[in-house]
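During the second half of the funding period, the structural biology subgroup turned its attention to how the target accommodates small molecules. The most pressing case was zinc ion, which had performed well in the primary screen but for which no bound structure existed. We therefore specified the complex as follows and requested a full 3D prediction, including the ligand pose.
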Amino acid sequence: MSPTLRTLRCVVCGADAALAHRTKCPSCGGILDARYDGSPEAWRAAFVAAVRDATPGMWRWRATLPVPRHGTPVQLGEGDTPLIAAERPDAWGAVPGLRFKCETANPTGSFKDRPASVALSMARAWGVPGVVTASSGNAGASVAAYAARAGLPSVVLVPDDLPAGKASQIALYGPILIAVRGHFSRAYDLALDWAERSGWYDVTSTLLSAFPTEGNKTVAYELWRQAPRVPDWILIPVSSGPLLVGIAKGFAELRHAGLVDREPRLVAVQAAGCAPIAAAYDAGRDEVDAWGDPETVASGIRDPLQGYADDGTRTLEIARRSGGSALAVDDDAILDAAEAMARYEGVAAEPTGAVAVAGARRMIADGRIGREDTVVCLVTGHGLKDPAAYLDRSADPIPIDPEPAALTAALATVGVLT
Ligand SMILES: [Zn+2]
């Protein structure tokens, strides 16, 4: 019998909740986790069949995902993103075993397409009137795109300091786009309140709803398929942490199936200007406290967790249990990493998408990651998401007249001589 989704179980009190578009535990308010039945043999058979399946993208793994009972998933070709080895690691402070998992190749340019595809698939199957999400930008674009695909209305609440490029990308998909004064947690509160009053499904990609997180498991499945040897380290940009939680769960399922013999060490990398999880880790605490005023160029992880710091506690617990850790990198290190990835490897990330690479460089410099270690850095969002973030660092074009001599002279000023 193949693995079967049975229940949503509270990770705090163990209570079960029905498979519906509810959010936190009805008994204690804790985080709910989707739980499946299935023997190791059943899971193994499901994974082996998925590898052989001709279905492109993440829905090849549908046997181990929440699948709508009626109809087909809402898809745009998400998943199957490239795993790219660093070609010139010594030029920019990396190690030979470092690889980029390029979530930038997803349909809207970020990993959020995975949770959005699952969330909108369930929303359509349940027949909810619409979906609502709070977003720091990328989840908003994903939810708006998949809602458009599903033919469902969507409301996207963003903080009012959203980068302009992200706002226009979201708007193109035609959601009702609301800019909430203040930081992400204010938008989170309003989305939750409105969903409770309206019956619309709140698909906010934190640990609020169990279903979107399931989509993130497919990153682990793909890493196993792309490189069967489990990496020593996986570094992940983290705000509340659903991507880290999903990757951990995916590897745990592969281990349950007997397909991997260990799990990777997971590192939650945060921006120094918004680092509630890294601060708790550094202090040796189990409980994560909400952050005050977030301030970082990495807009995708500018989330202070005010009102849902227990998401951070869960993420930290899982990172620790994996043998990993949490750390914070400052904005200069993030922008330096983005520049290095682009200039030495041809991989363009928005600042948030470079955060894991900044963390890897720090851990390599500190000796925590060894030269022989294998490392995967999640590149979560494309450089085209927020190109204005690099304006201060980019060279302006050199203006010339349309004459060969003018081109020769311009190139000579930068050392290119004929
Ligand atoms: Zn509970």
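Two results from this model are relevant to the next phase. The longest helix spans residues 210-226. The pocket of zinc ion is lined by residues 10, 12-13, 15, 25, 27-28, 30 (CB under 6 Å).
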